[in-house]
Amino acid sequence: MKHDEVKRNQRGQRMMLRYPASTRVNHWTMAVSFILLALSGLAFFHPAFFFLSHTLGGPVWARILHPFIGVVFFLLFVAIAVSNVRYNLWIKNDLRWVRQIGDVLGNHDERLPPIGKFNPGQKLVFWCLVISVPLLLVTGVIMWRPWFAGYFPIPLIRLASLLHALAAFVAIATIIVHIYAAIWVKGSIRAMTRGWVSRAWAKHHHPLWYEDHVDQDLAEQRKARDGQGERPGAERDLKARE
To answer: Looking at the predicted structure, is the pLDDT value of residue 51 above 50?
Structure first.
């Protein structure tokens, strides 16, 4: 998208696209789905939370809708996971970042090694969900009455129930950490609602991603200039503006 070449915020800062509209729609649809699944799931987990079944219209509708919403959530998660897996691969600086967690918590960002589009904490959230969400789907299908549970032996359904509860606990705890981190790092929620961040924000929080973006930007502009006849010193001027 070329708009980030000229888009600026109210302070005149140049902006860059962090999350396209498709990712933001997917993310917030997943968020709503996850809340409904967590609340209705807690209603099934313990009688003390049974009142939460009314979030889906009562116990009968909660029983019917919970697995269907779960399938929708899984498909949305697969889409966003596939498109972002390359940004969540572990790099050498991530381990250094984790070892310096004291500097992270102390907001001493100037001491931290440069990281990519996502920091190691975000990557851990990603991989926890990569493990827990498919496990929730598989165990949920095994327990899904009246469509599939009849095909499985009772001991397997009981084991699936246990694993489903454990995976749900991991997923809920992971999402709570995810929400806390998003609130903690100023600008993260705005990035997921508006899609854009300032280049200064990107350079401060995700310098390697910022550098990749600038390099790609310069390469595209160089290619465009080559087709129009290059002015001597133009590339130097572009880098100076960054």
So the answer is: yes
- Counted domains in the chain: 1
Query: Which residues make beta-bridge pairs with 186?
Result: none
Q: Is 76 helix (H, G, I), strand (E, B) or coil?
A: helix
φ, ψ for residue 178 (rounded to 5)? -60, -45
Does 27 map to a domain? yes
Question: What share of the chain in percent tops pLDDT 90?
Answer: 81
Average pLDDT, the chain: 91
φ and ψ at residue 197, rounded to 5 degrees: -135, 155
**67-115 per-position pLDDT tens digit:** 999 999 999 999 999 999 999 999 999 999 999 999 998 989 899 999 9
Closest CA to 80 of 37, 137, 28: 28
Instruction: Answer left, alpha or beta for residue 90, where phi above 0 means left and psi between -120 and 50 means alpha.
Output: beta
Is residue 222 over pLDDT 90? no
Please check whether residue 99 lies inside any domain of the structure.
Answer: no
* Helix H or strand E segment including 114: none
Q: What is the CATH number of the domain that holds 55?
A: 1.20.950.20
Q: Tokens 């095909």 belong to which residue?
A: 151
The full length of the chain comes to: 242
Active-site residues, by number, are 178
54 is in which domain, residue-wise?
19-87+118-196
In the structure encoding, which two tokens stand for residue 204, read together? 């401060």
The span from the first CA to the last CA of the chain, in angstroms, equals: 18
Q: What is the pTM for the complete model shown?
A: 0.87
H or E segment to which residue 120 belongs: helix 120-143
